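Appendix B. One record, verbatim.
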Amino acid sequence: MDWHRSQSGSCRGDKKTFFLIKPARRAQNMSTSDKNTTIVLVDGCRIPFQKPGTSYRSYRAHDLARFAIRGLLDRTGLDPALVDRVVLGNVIQDRETSNVAREAALGAGLPATVTAQTVTMSCLSGNLAITSAAEAILSGQADVVIAGGTDSASAYLERFPLKKHRALPYLNEFSTGESMGEYADRLASLYAVARETQDAYTVRSHQSAVMAFREGMYDGEVVPVTGPPDFVPVTQENMIRPETTQEALSLLKPSFNHKFGTVTAANASNYADGAAAMLLMSEAKAAELGLKPLARLVSWVYTAGSPKDEMLLGQVSAIPALLAGMDPSEKGAAKTGTGSVSGTGTAAGGAAGGKAGGSIHPDDIDVFELQETFAAQILAVLDAIAVGGQTHAGSDATAAADEVDAEESASKSTGKTAGKPSGQTSGETAAVSIPLKKLNTLGGTLALGHVFGATGVRLVTTAAKRLVREEGRYALVAGCSGGGLGHAMLLESMEGPVPDAAKAQKAAKRTTKATASDGTKSQKGTKQTKKAPAKPKTKPKAK
């Protein structure tokens, strides 16, 4: 038996319900450590994600992708003739542009001699495009590859309006007939993720995105689009709700399980129009072309579980499988498993090296970017992975909303401890605690919107740029998709480790500067206070 099914699945949250995520025994971790090739991410960008039927209503998926590819070429200054291949992820397929990567490449001005292919893996399509591109470089089939993803819900809805259909067919699981929202409600019940906690996390996502754009943290990563019908430059993402509050979200009714559900239109991500692209090559090729990469692709893995019982939980098996694949005996090596899962691999030879003997410990990771399809889903993942793939419903999660705001550790985000539920004695995965202060700090899918084919590319690009900005060493990106699939990838900064002492020294300088500034303001306030009582003394003389 490959998976352990939930013994009872009431959306009410039966306190006797137990749920276990089996370790990904068939997952094969891919690494470049034994390939003598290091794959690097030179740069990446995306066009602003938009609500369907708005700014991109006149465009199709290949149009959005060509905008992203063109923006990437402009940012890097790369000669289009040097590109060997384009790989794009796509989910909402257009029958007239079945190979959307080819149409986008031609539309972006790449030579007709550049090959292009489209890949699909539900919500992991963008991730698959990246790893497929990396594997093409590792195998010697290409030197320079553009990987990306694109989707246009607007183009689909124009042909098939929702008034004639209940929802996008891509939101339902074919093998079970259930919608992703129904799965999310089930997770909320099984992992005791309270409605208040989901809403609090949703507010956090929106507020983080607002802060990121306000402070310019997405400058260069989000490239503008100008074209018909309005010819007004699209520079901002219109899915983010700056005015979102937990009180406002609490007024919304459940969208799926109307009687017992907690998933609403707000604490679920919304599908969007958009595209993203990144430039990949070997580190040697980047040096030859005089390009300065953002990060190395160290290792990646794909996993699979029960579509019925492990839907939306792919990260729970993928992240431990990725970290377990890093062999402590070989610096930067990732174990090459004997499993049969296709599409797994590694791409950073000799790049990884942790604190002890080259191993990678979760504490060594500075940046986490995880797909947050639903607030219930991401909180359930954080809880399950913190206890090694196990949990039981009925735990008290009501205090988690305050913990989300306070950015406590992810293992506490649903109000549970990391203890082992009774009756579970085998099948655990390695426990991984993800601090919220390192997770999706610039906002996530809940705020930015979900472009099925491009979200994975967005996550990797953001993670790499955060590594540079935050002077971190490692970044971990993970996602899930329909069919019970999971994926995780490890990135390493090109700059190498920043000593803790150096980080502490910089932090101390910032603190000293801030203190000095506050002190100056305080002194000015004191002087003003002293001058105030002196004024009456002059008035009697005047009289």
